[in-house]
């Protein structure tokens, strides 16, 4: 695959991510911005009055992080507008922190079942951990490691999109081939898929888009035998 072809595929993938992130962010956050309880997207726990508040407080900053994320990976923006990149990064960081804290409350009050709660707890812990690592590495000037941790973090942010995609696919399969499954069965599988599949895709992307190019550049700089050519040390 030529460099031009890879670049075109990269921009196609970026556009798909950005458009789907925009669509889900607007879909998820709109009812909570207007405070319409009847249009809430998630079943509420009738015994916990604060459940709706925790969902709304999670949806708004998480949707903001979902929107910001794709633009943080555009090299042209990072290079030409470093101040904008840093400011958006700070907003993204704050959004994920708020989204994570409120996600713990929302998952605790969830009526979707223990399996979904465990999936969301693990996802939230990984969401916070990868964010901390991304912040730590950029503070230490480790740009490549920062990029790797941010890929992992945004893969978890993007689980908001993936969950709905897997849910739609699962419901289609249920209707056509697996009528014995309930909606809860499909939802539980979608929640775990949003975690596990996104993590695997992120690691694949890290290897092929970050680590392999680095390895190729290092091979160009240093020959396979590890010896520096004599001409390289001459003045």
TrEMBL record:
InterPro entries: DUF2306_membrane (IPR018750). Pfam families: DUF2306. Keywords: Membrane, Transmembrane, Transmembrane helix. Coiled coil: none annotated. The keyword Transmembrane applies. Signal peptide: none annotated. This is DUF2306 domain-containing protein. It comes from Natronosporangium hydrolyticum.
């Amino acid at each position: 695959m030529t460099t031009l072809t890879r670049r075109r595929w990269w921009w196609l993938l970026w556009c798909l991510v950005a458009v789907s992130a925009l669509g889900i962010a607007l879909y998820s956050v709109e009812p909570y911005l207007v405070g319409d309880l009847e249009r809430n997207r998630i079943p509420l726990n009738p015994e916990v009055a604060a459940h709706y508040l925790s969902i709304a407080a999670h949806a708004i900053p998480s949707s903001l992080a979902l929107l910001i994320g794709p633009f943080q990976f555009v090299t042209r923006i990072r290079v030409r507008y470093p101040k904008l990149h840093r400011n958006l990064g700070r907003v993204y960081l704050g959004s994920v922190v708020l989204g994570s804290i409120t996600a713990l409350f929302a998952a605790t009050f969830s009526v979707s079942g223990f399996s979904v709660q465990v999936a969301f707890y693990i996802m939230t812990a990984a969401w916070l951990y990868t964010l901390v690592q991304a912040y730590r590495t950029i503070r230490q000037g480790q740009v490549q490691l920062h990029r790797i941790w941010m890929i992992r973090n945004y893969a978890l942010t993007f689980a908001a999109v993936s969950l709905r995609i897997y849910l739609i696919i699962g419901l289609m399969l249920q209707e056509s081939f697996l009528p014995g499954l309930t909606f809860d069965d499909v939802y539980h599988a979608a929640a775990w898929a949003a975690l596990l599949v996104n993590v695997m895709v992120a690691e694949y992307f890290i290897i092929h888009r970050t680590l392999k190019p680095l390895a190729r550049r290092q091979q160009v700089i240093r020959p396979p035998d590890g010896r520096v050519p004599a001409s390289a040390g001459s003045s």
